[in-house]
Amino acid sequence: MITIGQKFPAFSKTAVVSLEKGKEFETLTSDYLVNDDNVWTVMFWWPKDFTFVCPTEIAEFNKNYGEFRDRETRLIGASTDSEFVHAARRTHHDDLRDLKFPMLADTSKSLAEELGILEPNEKIAYRATFIIDPTGIVRWVCVNDLSVGRNVKEVLRVLDGLQTDELCPCNWEKGQETLTV
């Protein structure tokens, strides 16, 4: 599995960015992750759109979209479902219609495989979360088993810590003192 300190792999994938007719899809590339504006990226993966746990996570990331934006961080959601499955799930799930971030489609499963997050039996993505700095380097990885949803507040807490570029003690939260050596 790709890990901390490694460059996020190159990719070019279709993403659902809207439900507006004719504007549903865009191509996202790994170039989107690298920037001079000090913008971070959180890419989170889920197994399948039409399941029970996945929509709860997608909706929770969306509810916290402003928190990520306030931290100059882009959100990208992803799974091995197609862009058409993503569009259908957004259309038919009340909590997903107004998503503020793209839903990346890795139908070839090549990116999930390169990241090392492809479940070996069903060939679907694990619940993986990557925090990527503005240079395209992975700074945090968390992977949950298929049956357990992640904690979005923890993703925000770790992002806050990474963005301080200081030593953050156990259970540290934004606004608390960091460690001095």
TrEMBL record:
Pfam families membership: AhpC-TSA (PF00578)
CDD domains: PRX_Typ2cys (cd03015)
InterPro entries: AhpC/TSA (IPR000866), Peroxiredoxin (IPR050217), Peroxiredoxin_AhpC-typ (IPR024706), Thioredoxin-like_sf (IPR036249), Thioredoxin_domain (IPR013766)
Enzyme class: oxidoreductase
Reactions it catalyzes: a hydroperoxide + NADH + H(+) = an alcohol + NAD(+) + H2O
Thioredoxin domain residues: 2-164
Top-level taxon of the source organism: Bacteria
The entry's keywords: Antioxidant, Oxidoreductase, Peroxidase, Redox-active center
Segments forming a coiled coil: none
Protein EC: 1.11.1.26
Subunit structure and binding partners: Homodimer; disulfide-linked, upon oxidation. 5 homodimers assemble to form a ring-like decamer.
UniProt name for this protein: Alkyl hydroperoxide reductase C
Species for this entry: Mucilaginibacter humi
